[in-house]
User: Fold this.
Amino acid sequence: MTTTVTVKDFRNDVRPNWCPGCGDFSVQASIQRALASLGKQPHEVAVISGIGCSGRISGYINTYGFHGVHGRALPAAQGLKLANRDLTVIAAGGDGDGFGIGLNHFMHSVRRNMDITYIVMDNHIYGLTKGQHSPTSAHGFTAKTAPAGNIENAVVPAQIALGADIGFLAQGFSSDVNQLVSLIEQAIQYKGFALVNVFSPCVTYNKVNTYDFFRENIVNLDKVDGYDPTSRMEAMKTVIETQGLCTGLIYRDDHRQDYEDQIPGYQTTPIAQQDLQLNPEIFAETLKEFA
Amino acid sequence: MTTTVTVKDFRNDVRPNWCPGCGDFSVQASIQRALASLGKQPHEVAVISGIGCSGRISGYINTYGFHGVHGRALPAAQGLKLANRDLTVIAAGGDGDGFGIGLNHFMHSVRRNMDITYIVMDNHIYGLTKGQHSPTSAHGFTAKTAPAGNIENAVVPAQIALGADIGFLAQGFSSDVNQLVSLIEQAIQYKGFALVNVFSPCVTYNKVNTYDFFRENIVNLDKVDGYDPTSRMEAMKTVIETQGLCTGLIYRDDHRQDYEDQIPGYQTTPIAQQDLQLNPEIFAETLKEFA
Amino acid sequence: MLEQLSWKVGGQQGEGVESTGETFAVALNRRGYYVYSFRQFSSRIKGGHSNDKVRVSLKQYRTSTDYTDVLLAFDQDTIDLEAGEVRTNGIVIADEKFNPTAPDHVRLFAVPLTSIAEECGSAIMKNMVSLGASAAVLGLPIETFTEVAEERFHRKGQKVVDQNTEAIRRGYEFIKEAGGADPSFALKSADGTHRLFMMGNDALALGALAAGARVMPAYPITPASDVMEYLIKKFPKVGGVVVQTEDEIAAMNMTIGAAYGGARAFTATSGPGLALMMEAIGLAGMTETPAVIIDTQRGGPSTGLPTKQEQSDLFAGMFGTHGEIPKIVLFPATPEECFYSMGEAFNLADHYQCPVIVLTDLQLSLSKQTTEPFELEKVIIDRGSIATPDMLAKERPDHGEEFKRYLLTETGISPRAFPGTQGGIHKVTGVEHSENGRPNEAVLNRTNMMDKRLHKLEGVELAGSLVRTGDNNPQVAILGMGANIGAIDEACERLREDGITAAHVHLHTLLPFPVQTLQQSLADAERVVVVENNATGQLRHLMSHFGVEHPQVSSFLKYDGSAFLPIEIHHFVKGMF
Amino acid sequence: MLEQLSWKVGGQQGEGVESTGETFAVALNRRGYYVYSFRQFSSRIKGGHSNDKVRVSLKQYRTSTDYTDVLLAFDQDTIDLEAGEVRTNGIVIADEKFNPTAPDHVRLFAVPLTSIAEECGSAIMKNMVSLGASAAVLGLPIETFTEVAEERFHRKGQKVVDQNTEAIRRGYEFIKEAGGADPSFALKSADGTHRLFMMGNDALALGALAAGARVMPAYPITPASDVMEYLIKKFPKVGGVVVQTEDEIAAMNMTIGAAYGGARAFTATSGPGLALMMEAIGLAGMTETPAVIIDTQRGGPSTGLPTKQEQSDLFAGMFGTHGEIPKIVLFPATPEECFYSMGEAFNLADHYQCPVIVLTDLQLSLSKQTTEPFELEKVIIDRGSIATPDMLAKERPDHGEEFKRYLLTETGISPRAFPGTQGGIHKVTGVEHSENGRPNEAVLNRTNMMDKRLHKLEGVELAGSLVRTGDNNPQVAILGMGANIGAIDEACERLREDGITAAHVHLHTLLPFPVQTLQQSLADAERVVVVENNATGQLRHLMSHFGVEHPQVSSFLKYDGSAFLPIEIHHFVKGMF
Ligand SMILES: Cc1ncc(C[n+]2csc(CCOP(=O)(O)OP(=O)(O)O)c2C)c(N)n1
Ligand SMILES: Cc1ncc(C[n+]2csc(CCOP(=O)(O)OP(=O)(O)O)c2C)c(N)n1
Ligand code: SF4
Ligand code: SF4
Ligand SMILES: [Mg+2]
Ligand SMILES: [Mg+2]
Assistant:
């Protein structure tokens, strides 16, 4: 049995089918590094993903992996967490998956606040279906389904996350793996629902939001002197001012209880490991109500 | 043919099946008054609602009325607007309908920004299904499905609406019909997506968020000197500070184009009134691409 | 002396109709009678006519009677709507307050229900007065109700108990004095056996609890909400959790996540919610995740008749998902079956590693009835094929290839490893996959995997797929399901009285459809009548669909939202001979 | 000289395979040949083997051949995977660059595709070189491709045109010199008739456009996305609008809203999206709103095989909604049928005021094939029963009761009034309702309304529900649907060559199921074989379900994601005799 783990332990023999240069490679590597540096054992971790190029990530990391249906990674991840609260549960997917079809689950996951880390690979495009605009595509952006330019306004993930009153909010960029690893580590350690939204360029279908685009437009909060990630108003202001184009730890509130700790009668032993046999006394007592 | 309309023109002979004292009566009356005072003809208006006690409202106003499925009033309303842009389209429903099951549509309706008014009767409870907590129920609130107190955090509608970058945001209260009428009028006149979230008490199942509760806790922005509803930061700050418990016009941005005005080639004549016969020349030209 | 009796209370929704009916029913159940109560209500909170019909008998009937003996009316509406059903010379007890009038064929007793209640302390005690009056009419000892009142109110202090007891007594005496204690309405006394009294939904919840379900994500909907509302109160005792999700899509995907995680997880919904779950049910089938879904059917389509009886989701439950998955669909008929079906559902889900849908109908879910006590020992928890940590440690090298979650086996069933288990790491995906759960589009793999999944249930007929009662070589076999069990049984009895031999075949399993068993159980019948609460004859079509043949099959359908009455089935079948 | 020929190009996904195949096919279609091209690809963006097989013939075939005559390989993988299919002495053209090796039964020409292309100006022109080489092998005039290249590149200037022409010429000459211009591969020349070349999805989009559809809310999904992507480019010309919605639930509800508003509205999706639309489809049925839904079937269940052929959503499309609604399900088989089916679908939706599902399968949706020019005059727009402003002004008083949207009529069809129409105000609800659209739970109203809705399609058999071709009193009738039309036709031809008489019955309408028509059209056959791309035999079960009988029915199923080959059906059927 391995006791010390390395990045290698989180690698398997599957060659990702992402296009060369896709931002998702860095996200995968960052998750692997973060898990190793936190000393997690591979079997103690589960990655739950949705459908999209990004959704393939659960197949590429040597942990338990569940690749569900489009937009529903978060409900599945929450179910898993409830069944086994000892697991490190990471949900992951694309901007379409998480902020398009799956946005309702995101909003409600935030307020439910289970101890889960959600990593979004936000490339401002639908990759797997070949280049339609996504909810994070800017107004005016041209795409297969917006040949004359997108006429909807973009969702700004950081802004809606704050609007939904999230407890942990960070953003990373595929080109800055060191920062990303650190953010993912913090997110996993955070006891509650944590979002790490990653600007992860699609080199095939998005010719606007490229590596260069992000490099030029992102404000790295790690480098902003005196930025206080514990102030919600400051976070909101920063996000509005940067139009969401900022990286680093944006907001963190350490004074919350997660969902699991508030469930009445919920036990420390994971449900999956409990004896399911009902105590006959409890049963007898229960039946009395119907006598 | 009537040319001047009065409130009476918007009344039909159906007796609402709401409980006596339900806040929704005032919402109904306010919509009727607003429509009359704007001089709309009943047949030029359609009310599209979801499922819930509140959802019954589309049956009680003498306009076209569509009572769809739970949580989907907004997509149906948008479809209707696209088919007939001349109609005044009002979507309406409950907090569960709009911010629970239907929240994804709300978030995306905001960014799509069609010229629609959305009125939510927010009673912080599921009324029609007899008293489960709703997404706007406070943490700790007890309900049928939270007998030991709600362990989820509440959605604050005004906050998520601002987070989603809404162009028109107002809140009303069933006890202040004059204000509510004025807000609904403004919302209907606003060219774009407008939310009027109404604190509309459920007298049967919500014994916490009563008329008195709202009366005591609401900050009426109409009475706040110098409140500037054109500042998004100020709006956000106010909403956070009042925990969403404020009424009046919270935010309004008049510098946006609505969706309809941006659709390439979309005509001023409503689709429903156009000749659908395809021009043979356009057809012939189109086929050429496949030759 | 009566061997059975039908009593009905009616009034405005929210006016105490439900609690009056409930107290009446519970009290008689306690005395050892068999009780069946059926509530009619509207999809609104207050107002609108509502009534609760209670059948009391010395032997068990699982449905309401065709007629009413005693009608308790809280308003004139109730008399206008319901007195037609009261038998000739039947009794109507009405509140004097509204100057009741009644048709000629009944005997009306205008009782000052409200005034007496007010004199006893509060108008809300009019239900107690009316129960006392009912006791007098039915020749029941007054203790039948005073005991229940005592128990119910003793926490509120002796004064409240006394007031309520007094209200009952005054109602009782009023009728006695008014000459309403007609011996022809007196009920034979029961043997005092203790049994339970509950609705199908209670039994489903208890069944899930006993079967080891510990995670229930669900979204409220009539008539399913009781299940979650009950368990949310009980789960804290056993460490379980109910999550009220944002919608049914979340509920189903969360159920799958929890089941994948090793919990016994389930959700409960009704038609519109089932529709929303379709995509995720397909995921459960594809990923071979055991998940249990209760669908309490109500009047469809769309929002339809949300508080009315129907059995019209058979097709949706059986055929609703896109593509092809293994699936099991059960349809219990009584609270007892509801209870044990949940144990069965979880075992089947774990054994076959596929979604299991448990259908009920509104009548079964909401009608409260006398129920035999449940035996916990009969609920065996069998988790199916699990790769335990021990097995994995023994059989698998430390650094080998991934665990083959989808190992091709003879039976199509492969061991599961729960996340968190060392040595069990594997992938799960809704995309077509190889044995170790990786996406794989190869033609051969595809065929193998489809065969694996669909093979699991091929040719299987589950034990107890149907129950047949009644005559051999009958002139008619009546095929039914769900709550119609009672009306069919009673119709068969009456047919026999008419000299027509009859058998009752009640279907319990819809998928895998018990082709052989059903074919055999209908073979000796001259005619077959399929009785179902829907408009298109779904069960009738299922017979053809799966190739169950019989030369003489007719359908008897009801889709107006009301439950079948025995008399309707009786007449329909009799008319065929 | 060949009457038909099979050419295939293969390589890594994203490497120009698709454009090479497309140019080849378009060029030959222009010359008057019948062309059928079938693409194999994976659910990934770059990398992974992909190929495009093009059949060229003097008469029309609607499927690929069993074998390949000429294989154009951009990598060794392609040879390894695909050369087995090349017929003995068939030709493999491969890029010299990767030192290709090929099995003995083929003739390999290693052509310096990349080097020549580089010499002409850019490596990407290797596809042009390879087309030139193909022309030489097939004895085609070089203009076949140079003309297309000229047209395609003339906007980029003469230089680009010249480079490409040169690349084609060099490829052509290389083969000539290498002795690859084998007269036995020369194609007979075609008559130069101008026809279209398109995939089913194009035809669906054009059909919707011609039928007057002007609102299309949809969510992207393979293989349906093309439809929205095409119309989003075309709609600006006619004032229509495509909305890319947040999900399929929004798409379906928005479609309903627009249809209610008076537009012709539709959406397009595939299996997982269809599953999500179930609840709203029920709403369309209950509110009698005409809505058209395209479901381009792909490999299921769940995410399944998203880029592969399957026909496994029949049940979901027909039976997926909870409760019972009227519904129409069509399944065209060719681009021509796709085009006219859309007109039919909108007319049926407007006439019967119910949802209409148009099924296709991936092969039909994505295979490009020679298509007869569409005739716009044949697309008649019939909006069914509409209460126009004039009618309403005449017939209805100024202040009367609401318009009876759900007027009970003989046919069950009631006039619609579009919102905005004076005098037409009414209510619509998914709850059971009265004639004026108000919620109503009364038993009689319920029965009337259910009967009204379901009656609309009762006993109806739509014109053109199936097409039968082939022999009378055949030894075998092959029943099929969708893209399998070509393989079945060809199998029938070969059976006849073997002396087995055969008929082909191709089903076009699944709901209302054409019971009588199908029964009759199978009656004279000795045996029936049902051919379908799914694992459970859904069409076969539909026959039983609806009571279509035949003493000798067998199923031939394929569910490995690949399309039926004529030879497979031929062998299967032949084996029965
Ligand atoms: C219910 C459903 N609808 C649509 C699809 C098709 N689909 C697959 S991935 C995807 C979007 C991918 O975009 P995103 O989530 O941003 O992921 P990316 O590929 O960009 O990483 C869509 C629409 C699906 N699989 N399921
Ligand atoms: C898909 C679906 N799920 C659940 C329901 C049951 N249902 C009807 S109304 C409602 C919630 C009502 O709450 P809200 O929207 O706040 O309206 P209110 O009754 O409080 O006005 C629910 C859960 C339904 N009709 N459809
Ligand atoms: S298409 Fe875009 S998102 Fe998908 S793998 Fe390629 S680069 Fe990455
Ligand atoms: S239950 Fe509540 S929300 Fe519903 S009608 Fe009554 S008071 Fe209003
Ligand atoms: Mg993306
Ligand atoms: Mg509410």
User: Anything to note?
Assistant: The domain at 4-185 of chain C is CATH 3.40.920.10 (Pyruvate-ferredoxin Oxidoreductase; domain 3).
